[in-house]
UniProtKB/TrEMBL annotation:
Signal peptide: none annotated. The keyword Kinase does not apply. Pfam families: Palm_thioest. GO terms for molecular function: thiolester hydrolase activity. It comes from the Eukaryota. This is Palmitoyl-protein thioesterase 1-like. Keywords: Hydrolase.
């Protein structure tokens, strides 16, 4: 974990992983989203593991098991507000067949478009 935090400049900041540099404003803004749609593509070979698209990941020191988001420290300690959002029913975890970002028009209409429309127009 230490090498990751020191070597990777983007993800640790995005995931609020550095305990001495946690950004409360970032967490507050993320937790204030109206909805968060997370999509995992079953044949994704870009993200490793593909479950990271749903905030799942390996436990420290192991690459044999993948934890679902709810079992990760990021979620349990609510570093970015994901737990807050999920407990409020605002996170949609979706699995789709296909490769990385290859979403059909019908799946876009089903899983994404409803959250882009103005509520008054529904």
């Amino acid at each position: 974990m230490k090498a990751y935090l020191e070597g990777c400049k983007f993800l640790p900041k995005l995931n609020n992983e550095n305990s001495s540099k946690r950004n409360a404003t970032y967490k507050e803004r993320f937790a204030s989203l109206q909805n968060l749609v997370l999509i995992m593509f079953e044949q994704d070979n870009v993200l490793v593991p593909r479950e990271t698209s749903l905030f799942g990941y390996y436990p420290d020191g192991s690459f044999n098991v993948i934890l679902p988001a709810e079992e990760t420290t990021l979620y349990k300690e609510d570093w970015i507000g994901l737990k807050t959002l999920n407990e409020a029913g605002k996170v949609k975890f979706i699995n789709l067949s296909g490769h990385h970002l290859q979403i059909s028009i019908s799946d876009m209409k089903k899983y994404i478009l409803p959250y882009l429309e103005d509520e008054s127009s529904r």
